[in-house]
Amino acid sequence: MDIREMRYFIELARTKNMTKAAQNLYISQPALHKALRKVEAELDTTLFCRQGNEFLPTDTGTILLEKAQSVLGLVAQMEDSIAATKNLKLGKVHIGFPSVVGSMYLPDLFIQFQQTYPGISLHTTEAGGATLANMVTEGEIDMAIIMRPVYSDALNEIPIIKNQMVACVNKCHPWASRDYVTIRDFKDVPFVSFDENFNINTQLKERFKAENLHPNFAMTGSSSQFLYKYATHSNNILILPIPMIELYCNDDPIKMIPFSPTFPWELCLIFRKNAFLSTASKALINFIQEYIFQNTLDPYYHF
Q1: Which of 229, 231, 226, 225 has its CA nearest to residue 217?
Q2: Dihedral angle, C-alpha 5, 8, 11, 15, nearest 10 °
Q3: Is the peptide bond before 190 cis (omega within 30 degrees of 0)?
Q4: Which residue has the higher pLDDT, 251 or 225?
Q5: How far apart are CA 148 and CA 269, in angstroms?
């Protein structure tokens, strides 16, 4: 018994008249009669008894009527939900990002997104880039914002923000007078940065390896605020992206020293290749790109 036949059965039970039911269903009486006989044969039971011109449900017909109405109610809810999802009135997106990236860029963006799409719920996970890339690959979250490059052929990436890494020191530090630093300047020099759960750590190790050097991490961690406070109070060198340092420096007497050659810091939005991407997820991706384009003042530092 399929959905169409359920609708035929319910309409005849409602009208109690074969002619009227057929008219309401926009089919012929013979077609309606044939469909009902087919269902009765499949169920091996009589569904209607005829009294004059009226068709009244039998005991089994009454049971079927109750169940069929419940089924069609669920079908209607499903169809409404599908339509609402297609029209972006319903949906859910699970996005991950490092906590500091969330603090810098996402609160206002998410507020405006949910004002635009109030029926779409956002679920967030905060972690390092390496962890987030694995979560997206395994399908645990829909998408994430991480530092480029992406070390996985299973992921698509959309570049979103571009800035640069710098060495940050107190103005009393011996390096404070420098105009730039190189990776070779860090030979046997301790510094502070993110731990191995973050792509910044991977990038640093690769740059040191290219110079046949080993990085001398005096301190690593997952909190940029903690690393900033630790480095500036201990007079250690801190390696972080410019926006993260600007987030915390306020009036601190510090100097940001660029690398030569430039050490890029780029963020991208990642999601799985060859995997279903919901309408809500596509809407969020488009919204992020449009929001940042409209709210960015400097064309170099852009989403």
Answers
A1: 231
A2: -140
A3: no
A4: 225
A5: 9
